[in-house]
């Protein structure tokens, strides 16, 4: 992969990149397709463990989710976080403000939002992890794009190898177990109870879940931060045509290799969850998932440059422009549907019905995002985060432009 550092000095367009917003909107679809299982199923959509849903169709749904969505879309979101970091650098330069204090305020605000989100709505949230990892990117903001790619590749390889070795060790020691019945029962009781029990479960599990996310996702997310940072420094999305040969190579190589790793992981997640086989497959997935994510990015950018693709880009961009608000809104909606905050439907819907809810929720968010942005410059969460970032009061209504 060739990324020239001297292109980093080119001026960054002041206007938002609609393809970046559209990709961020697409990432939210994948995140919703994964996170919904943490609300709807106490066994996290594992047919091998869940005695209520163990049919062939249930396995097929689990396989599809693992194949197409798991371990891919948080990587896409992480990549876009790294890219947006360079846009924040450009914004600070245009505003004539010091970048480090501005980003420290932004990351602190993101950490606060993340911790509240995790304690109240979704204990598996990732914003707080992003807030901490962003400080590493802040410290590395002067590195060349090529060096950022090298660091990212090193992290991906190291993480994949470690998890594969852990999987082999687990197999050698007896294979491991699936989701603990006691853990599932506790979650089912909490989410099937009242709002207080749901709140207690989220807040009580937040510390251990953050620790788990640091082990499971933080290194790979950091790698994608670096990849996104490198892409932002060379303004890859401002003029994608310059990188057409690279994009073609990513599709030719990254798509099949990424799919092979995804298939192996999906088979393990659907038919051998919780043991050494899944741990090994997870490690293989950590090696190959960035390639599949890169293929998603390239395919999206190429699609957006076509006539029909521009309409898709236009539909997705408002969702991605207020991605933080939509991410939080997804947790709120899922909480109302599946926990004691609302209808308490946890473990009551078959996997196919759970999966079918994803496009419905997403479509509603698309419409709400477009409607909201007709009268507002920012989503509610984006407005609050920007206020913290600039240490001021940004305009609320669009007529204030």
TrEMBL record:
Domain DUF418 residue range list: 231-390
InterPro entries: Bact_Transport_Assoc (IPR052529), DUF418 (IPR007349)
TM annotation in the entry: 73-92, 127-144, 151-172, 210-229, 250-273, 279-304, 324-346, 352-373
Keywords for the protein's UniProt record, in alphabetical order: Membrane, Transmembrane, Transmembrane helix
Keyword Transmembrane helix annotated: yes
Protein's name according to its UniProt entry: DUF418 domain-containing protein
Organism per entry: Rhodococcus maanshanensis
